[in-house]
């Protein structure tokens, strides 16, 4: 593969180093052992296992990092990050490389997932939230919020009202 210019090659190398730092900083090796919780997070396919949990979280976190780079940002540029609909921290766990300068937070409507996070993921702060707004944070508290597969928790016909 050839790069169209040196700037692109330097950008890819920098991105690769960032992803390697994320893997090196990944301290939590625990994965939900409850098959029901894993299926809620990953679906009922063949990837609903520990390997699927870790690799899908890493892959999604790399996509978020890539999207941020496209707008001139990196995860470590933010003071407080929120994983909206965090489940069992499958994606959030891969941002431990920005600790302690960036606070990591997760929220979800799934009590079992939040209980699991509070017991197994000490790198972030987790809260159980209601399905309806508002979240229990002050306005403007987070400077980066992302959500991955979070709207499947809402039932068909439920009104979703989000204000940024």
Folded structure, characterized:
It is a single chain. This protein has helices at residues 6-25, 35-42, 50-70, 111-120; strands spanning 80-84, 103-108, 125-128, 144-146. It is of the alpha/beta class and 164 residues long. The protein has a single domain, classed as Rossmann fold. A four-stranded parallel sheet has the order 3-2-1-4, covered by helices on one side. β2 (103-108), α4 (111-120) and β3 (125-128) form a beta-alpha-beta unit. The radius of gyration is 17 Å and the shape is globular. The N and C termini lie far apart (41 Å). The model has no long low-confidence stretch (mean pLDDT 81).
Give a nutshell description of this structure.
This protein has 164 residues and is of the alpha/beta class.
Q: In CATH, what is the class? A: Alpha Beta
In what range is the share of β-strand residues?
5-15%
The coarse overall form would be: globular
Into which percent range does the helicity of residues fall?
25-40%
CATH topology: Rossmann fold
CATH architecture group name: 3-Layer(aba) Sandwich
Mean pLDDT: 81
By secondary-structure content and strand pairing, the structural class works out as: alpha/beta
Q: Could you give the order of the helices and strands?
A: HHHEEHEE
Low-confidence stretches: none
Query: Count of DSSP helices?
Result: 4
Oligomer state equals single chain
Outline the biggest β-sheet: 4 strands, parallel
Radius of gyration: 17 Å
Number of domains: 1
Task: Tally the beta strands.
Answer: 4
Note the topology.
Layout: H1 6-25, H2 35-42, H3 50-70, E1 80-84, E2 103-108, H4 111-120, E3 125-128, E4 144-146
Parallel strand pairs: 1-2, 1-4, 2-3
């Amino acid at each position: 593969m050839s790069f169209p210019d040196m700037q692109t090659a330097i950008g890819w190398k920098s991105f690769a180093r960032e992803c390697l730092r994320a893997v090196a900083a990944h301290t939590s090796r625990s994965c939900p052992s409850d098959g029901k919780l894993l299926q809620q997070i990953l679906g009922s396919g063949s990837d609903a296992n520990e390997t699927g949990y870790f690799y899908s979280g890493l892959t999604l976190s790399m996509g978020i990092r890539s999207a941020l780079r496209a707008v001139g940002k990196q995860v470590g540029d933010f003071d407080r990050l929120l994983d909206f609909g965090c489940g069992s921290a499958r994606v959030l766990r891969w941002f431990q490389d920005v600790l302690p300068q960036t606070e990591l937070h997760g929220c979800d409507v799934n009590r079992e997932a939040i209980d699991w996070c509070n017991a197994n993921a000490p790198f972030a702060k987790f809260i159980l939230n209601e399905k309806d707004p508002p979240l229990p944070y002050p306005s403007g508290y987070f400077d980066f919020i992302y959500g991955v597969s979070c709207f499947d928790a809402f039932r068909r016909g439920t009104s979703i009202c989000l204000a940024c």
